[in-house]
Write a structure and sequence with these properties.
- The chain is an alpha/beta fold.
- It has 7 helices and 11 strands.
- It is found in: Membrane.
């Protein structure tokens, strides 16, 4: 299971003075502030701080809300998982080739699988930086996976476009085409959607140039069957993978 990040702050607050400005005294998180001795209405309304003996792990709802808030602020987000289990020294000791895999695919919107947006470029950048650090520098090969419905002329042209993009970015990586029509067929298959399906807001709409982000109130159902299908598709390619980068749906 994913390990939720922990956030903890010591319940210690001291009054402070800002030089060259009005004197600001902050009494506590949930009390009023005083500027130049004049009381004001409460300016903070935070919950109670955790005590030393309380669990510091976030619940699922709080964890998701933090990510949601960051997205609303248009921040770049990178979620790291299972790195505490990474045996980095073994990569160099065993002297075996490993892979750093990049899946620049928004799995919630398969129709955009051959389009490369800012998020895709960000993933490529992160993976490239990792490949320049020991032990990956001498042991790892970058692989970029291109998800297609079928291997045809259009797919070959898309792969050529990706190769040219990597060349322009001076990224030394292999490109691999993966047929996934058997997985995408599960996305809108109503027979697989159940009460436990997650709902994802539709934030993309068709334009004359492709797919662009747009905020709407619509939702699509993401079935557990589809999520498991995507997970299995990735796992089948990860026998010698040391680290992989996945597109975080918006």
């Amino acid at each position: 299971p994913m390990t939720a990040p922990t956030f903890h702050q010591q319940p210690i607050i001291q009054s402070g003075v800002m030089e060259g400005a009005s004197t600001i005294t902050l009494h506590s998180f949930n009390s009023s502030a005083a500027i130049n001795g004049n009381d004001m209405f409460p300016i903070f309304n935070f919950g109670e701080l955790r005590q030393e003996d309380e669990d510091k792990e976030l619940d699922v709802y709080s964890y998701v809300q933090i990510i949601k808030d960051a997205l609303n602020l248009n921040k770049s987000i990178c979620l790291a998982r299972n790195f505490h289990q990474l045996q980095k020294d073994d990569i160099e000791v065993n002297k075996r080739k490993v892979f750093v895999d990049i899946w620049p695919v928004n799995f919630i919107f398969p129709e955009t699988s051959t389009q490369f947006d800012v998020t895709c470029l960000y993933m490529l950048q992160l993976a490239t930086i990792l490949s320049m650090v020991k032990p990956w520098k001498t042991r790892a090969t970058l692989r970029v996976f291109l998800c297609i419905d079928a291997i045809n002329d259009n797919a070959l042209r898309t792969q050529q476009h990706l190769d040219e993009l990597l060349s322009q970015l001076r990224i030394n990586a292999q490109t691999r085409m993966i047929a996934w029509e058997n997985v995408t067929s599960l996305l809108n298959n109503t027979s697989t959607i159940n009460d436990s399906a997650a709902t994802i807001p539709v934030e993309q709409q068709a334009t004359t140039t492709g797919i662009a982000a747009a905020t709407t109130n619509s939702f699509i159902d993401i079935s557990d069957v589809y999520v498991r299908g995507v997970n299995e598709l990735i796992r089948q390619q990860c026998d010698s993978t040391s680290c992989l980068y996945l597109y975080l749906p918006r």
